[in-house]
Amino acid sequence: MTDSEFSRIVDFVSERYGIDLRSKQASIERRLENYMVSKGYKSYDQYMNAVEYDILGMEEQNFIDLITTKHTYFYREPEHFDFLRDVILPEIKEKENATKNMRIWCAGVSSGEEAYTVAMIIKDFLGEEYDAWDTGLMATDLSRKVLERALKGIYSSKQLENLPKHWMADYFTKLNHKQYEVIQEIRKNVMFRQFNLVNPFPFKNKLHVIFLRNVMMYLTEEMKRDLINRLYGFLEPGGYLITGLTESIEPESSNLEYLGTSIYKRPLY
Ligand SMILES: C[S@@+](CC[C@H](N)C(=O)[O-])C[C@H]1O[C@@H](n2cnc3c(N)ncnc32)[C@H](O)[C@@H]1O
Questions:
Q1: How far is the centre of ligand 1, averaged over its atoms, from the C-alpha of 197 (Å)?
Q2: What pLDDT digit, counting tens, does each position of 185-219 carry?
Q3: What are 46-54's contacts with CB under 8 Å, separation 24+?
Q4: What is the pLDDT of residues 43-76, one digit of tens each?
Q5: CATH number of 3-67, picked from 3.30.420, 3.30.1460, 1.20.120, 1.10.155
Q6: Is any atom of ligand 1 closer than 6 Å to the C-beta of 201?
Q7: Is 70 in the pocket of ligand 1 (CB under 6 A)?
């Protein structure tokens, strides 16, 4: 890959998706190479012409699936789920007791494990009252490929190894000796949608919690600043923004209050 071909990819991805690829040349080459050869592209420029000028956007979608890092697993960074169960959900339950409406967004959800973990925590927490609440959880990602996996809700027994013991019996159906499917009662409460975080958010109402975990580490500084600002505006007063454990938000860049372990709160006033 020539310097100018790499610059072209870096600029395109930064402008369209806010993703920073500047230090990733070797890994981008590795990720694109097989695909380009299989499709008969003779150079990165020829390939990028197809990505940028494909009216149907299919080649662009494949490109996104190739360049994004989608690693995730159930109950990842458990301190966030403990905080959700012990602090956030009791607060929402008290505050929204009259409306019974809970608004949570998992942004950059990848193949669904994060959103299903949240949904199962909510189900555990609400117990008998679960059906009385509208707990519709929005779960979005840029990559269509991971969303297809998320929608299927089928995972291997290995992926479920570290879950609370009763979840396996209560929230999954065994399909065969290797595969388990998330039960319909949980799946119906998670709405998976394709969404690029660069775009205006599709919400009518402000949110109680936003999970933006292990996404910011892939974004440009400009995108991070803009995103945090916009997310702040979409949080309920007293609402929470949770980032990945290795990610942080500069205190001077927003009015969010830092509570520790990558948990931020929009002040009440
Ligand atoms: C490493 S995964 C994180 C999954 C999950 N949140 C977790 O912590 O396990 C990062 C995800 O962010 C998504 N992503 C990256 N840039 C995005 C953007 N501009 N808009 C929406 N999703 C994006 C990727 O497609 C990928 O699935």
A1: 9
A2: 999 999 999 999 999 999 999 999 999 999 999 99
A3: 48/5, 48/8, 48/9, 48/12, 51/12, 52/12
A4: 999 999 999 998 888 999 999 999 999 999 999 9
A5: 1.10.155
A6: no
A7: yes
